[in-house]
Design a protein that fits this description.
This protein is mostly beta strands. It has one domain: Porin (Beta Barrel), CATH 2.40.160. The chain has one helix and nine strands; from the N terminus they run H-E-E-E-E-E-E-E-E-E. Strands 2-3-4-5-6-7-8-9 form an eight-stranded antiparallel barrel. Strand 3 and strand 4 form a beta hairpin.
Length: 178
């Protein structure tokens, strides 16, 4: 097993210059809204809305050919919903980790996919819960290093479904000319 691992690592390091990998890590700030469906109350069929803000860090991200592949760490805050049927869904603070990939359609436009998992702590109640998330994004680079994007996705928790719609600005300081 050790020989296979060493051989794989050696192969990757030898082949890196061949594929001309470009480091592209950075930071992204997002603001938007989530549409929620409460699954814990059987009588409730209405969708709810809450404000959302996120800060995402991509510590390891590499461009290989037209793909940007990496990992992300995201801190998010979601506010409370309005009162509906004498009930209010309390917001939360969450930390998530996952994989991200983008495909460069042109030098300025990318489409992307994020898959991750995380843990959230409900505000005021201090109750934690795990979740899964999947997101799609459309990004447009206004300069070589700064991009604007529209994101939508699905977050699954035991007690509710969430569909976040966010607008974000990203800064990737290490991208070289293609």
């Amino acid at each position: 097993m050790k020989k296979i691992f060493l051989f794989t690592v050696l192969f990757i390091f030898i082949s890196l210059p061949v594929f001309s990998i470009n480091y592209s890590g950075g930071v992204k700030a997002s603001f938007g809204q989530s549409v929620l469906k409460n699954r814990s109350l059987n009588y409730e069929s209405d969708l709810r809305e809450a404000l959302r803000c996120e800060l995402q860090l991509e510590p390891a991200s590499f461009i290989v050919s037209n793909f940007d592949i990496g990992i992300y760490l995201q801190l998010s805050y979601q506010g409370d919903t309005n009162i509906n049927n004498y009930a209010k869904l309390i917001g939360y603070t969450a930390l998530s980790l996952g994989l991200t990939t983008s495909y460069y359609i042109t030098d300025c436009y990318t489409i992307g996919l994020m898959l991750g998992t995380g843990y959230s702590i409900t505000n005021k109640l201090m109750i934690g819960s795990a979740f899964l998330e999947c997101r799609l994004s459309n990004s447009y680079f206004i300069t070589k290093n700064v991009s604007l994007s529209l994101n939508c996705g699905l977050i699954y928790k035991k007690e509710r479904f969430e569909i976040p719609f966010t607008f974000s600005i990203a800064y990737k300081p290490f991208i070289k000319e293609r």
